[in-house]
């Protein structure tokens, strides 16, 4: 069967169309990869800038605000020591000393969460242990920490690190102040990108149907929402209080 010149030309035209389509496809893929790479580099640069800014802010808070608070504490102590004969001034000086101590503790926690070096899960665990020792030990409340983490170098984003730490602090503060507990138990379990956080005390507990949530418990609820965490909070009279969180690490 003879092929006409017209058919040959049509076949050549089809081949050129196919080749052009393949070339355009390859070109499109290359352009998409280049754009993705540029965006990735830009994101990494932004992350580095944000980390540098966080580190600078943490340093400034430590150097400027921290030293100022320390000075106020020293001056208030001097004032208290020199006002033994004036109970009113002595009381005011003591109040100033107490308030600056509370602010100083708060500033230290802000500095800690602001510093990007503390985004590692291992650093958060260490800070939880230090916090538990500082808050629970003076009341002789035993603290047990069960950790099942496959990757302690895992990074949390700053919002997750802050909220997890402050939920932990709020719970152990409530246990120390109100529960009458002599033991607090905390468990951290990691499964791939999922983190499970369980904490409980063996205190007096309360009937959840009869109690209006206080500021501390509302704080826990709000921070759990910010984590997008599945939350179970339970308490019964004479059976202690328990909090369970489960959230995805981003």
Detailed description of the structure:
By secondary structure, the chain is an alpha+beta fold. The protein has two domains: 1-118, no CATH class; 119-250, Histidine kinase-like ATPase, C-terminal domain (Heat Shock Protein 90), CATH 3.30.565. The chain is 62% helix and 15% strand. It contains five helices and five strands, in the order αααβαββαββ. The chain has helices spanning 5-81, 87-114, 121-136, 158-179, 215-226; strands at 142-148, 183-191, 194-201, 230-235, 241-248. Strands 1-2-3-5-4 form a five-stranded mixed beta sheet, covered by helices on one side. Strand 2 and strand 3 form a beta hairpin. Helix 1 (5-81) runs antiparallel to helix 2 and helix 3 (121-136) packs parallel to helix 4 (158-179). The model has no long low-confidence stretch (mean pLDDT 78).
| Shape, per Cα inertia axes | elongated
Structural category: alpha+beta
Order of helices and strands: HHHEHEEHEE
Annotated CATH architecture of the largest domain? 2-Layer Sandwich
Number of helices: 5
| Largest pleated sheet | 5 strands, mixed
Strand portion:
15-25%
